[in-house]
Specification:
Blueprint lengths: L2 H22 L1 E7 L4 H14 L3 E8 L1 H9 L5 E4 L5 H9 L4 E15 L7 E2 L1 H9 L16 E5 L4 H9 L11 E3 L2 H9 L4 E6 L8 E2 L1 E2 L6 H6 L5 E9 L4 H11 L1 H9 L7
Parallel strand pairs: 1-2, 1-3, 5-10, 6-7, 6-8
Antiparallel strand pairs: 3-11, 4-8, 4-9, 4-11
Helix pairs in contact: 9-10
């Protein structure tokens, strides 16, 4: 056998072994909440370093989209900043999907304004009236004379659902509200408009915006875990049935002390 032929065979076998190694790597698909996204990304990066035979693909798009992907069997894990709706549970049963809930962190939804805004505290009632369009000027709540620019999450967002429940009490958001697809987009919009107000998960608060107290209570790990802060909520991952293998191992990693340290580093509230 010629040297050239031998080298070709060896190269071909090497390629096949390499391809086989790649194909054997398990891919876990995660989709959903942009609030949970930074937690999932940090945990996935650390988990894949420890488990190089596992690939974790993560995308955002909102809690509703993640749950839909789980029900359509295009995702292994749905990240969500809210619990399942009755309609989603019904649809899951019809499709033979049995969602299992995994609580992975706590969060506080924080109203934010431009750093130049003099307002430091709003009641839940004031926030509700603002988002319904019944309080329209900052001077009505102790601020400057200027029309309030309402910025909200879109309806596919779990954060929107919780805000609607805990702040609006299921009243409708004013039609003039500017809807945004992510926490980051709200931060950017509020940071660029001195008359704006928005709301985000606590892990997204940064120096570009000013967080407000609610009912004179500051959002923090302590007030969120104790339930004192009025707009606190758990963060979830949903799976189709009780998970096993690397999916279960990844979720266990996230709720372990190491994973919960990552939750804290991302600015959210660990479970313990």
């Amino acid at each position: 056998m010629s040297t050239l032929v031998s080298r070709s065979i060896i190269a071909g076998l090497s390629f096949l072994f390499l391809f086989a190694g790649v194909s054997l790597a398990e891919t876990i698909v995660v989709n959903g909440s942009t609030t949970v996204l930074p937690i999932a990304q940090a945990a996935a990066e650390a988990y894949m370093k420890q488990n190089p035979d596992v690939n974790i693909s993560i995308s955002g798009g909102g809690s509703g989209n993640g749950i839909k992907a789980l029900l359509d069997k295009t995702a292994d894990i749905a990240n969500s900043s809210r619990f399942l709706k009755d309609g989603e549970i019904k649809m899951a049963c019809e499709k033979g999907i049995f969602p299992v809930t995994h609580r992975i962190a706590m969060d506080a939804i924080v109203p934010i304004v431009h750093p130049s805004n003099a307002v430091t505290n709003l009641s839940v009632e004031q926030l509700s009236l603002m988002y319904q369009g019944k309080i329209t000027n900052w001077k009505e709540v102790g601020g400057i004379d200027g029309k309030i620019v309402i910025i909200s999450r879109d309806s596919s967002s779990g954060t929107f659902e919780v805000w609607q429940e805990k702040v609006l009490h299921d009243a409708k958001v004013a039609p003039r509200a500017l809807m945004q697809a992510s926490n980051g987009a709200i931060v950017q919009a509020v940071s660029e408009n001195k008359y704006a107000i928005g709301y985000i998960g606590i892990g997204y608060v940064n120096a570009e915006v000013k967080p407000l107290r609610v009912n004179d209570i500051e959002a923090s790990a302590k007030t969120a875990l104790s339930g004192v802060y009025p707009i606190a909520r758990p963060l979830f991952m949903f799976t189709n049935g009780w998970p096993s293998g690397n999916i279960m191992d990844f979720i266990n990693f996230l709720v372990s002390p190491e994973g919960q340290d990552m939750v804290k580093k991302e600015g959210f509230v660990p479970l313990y």
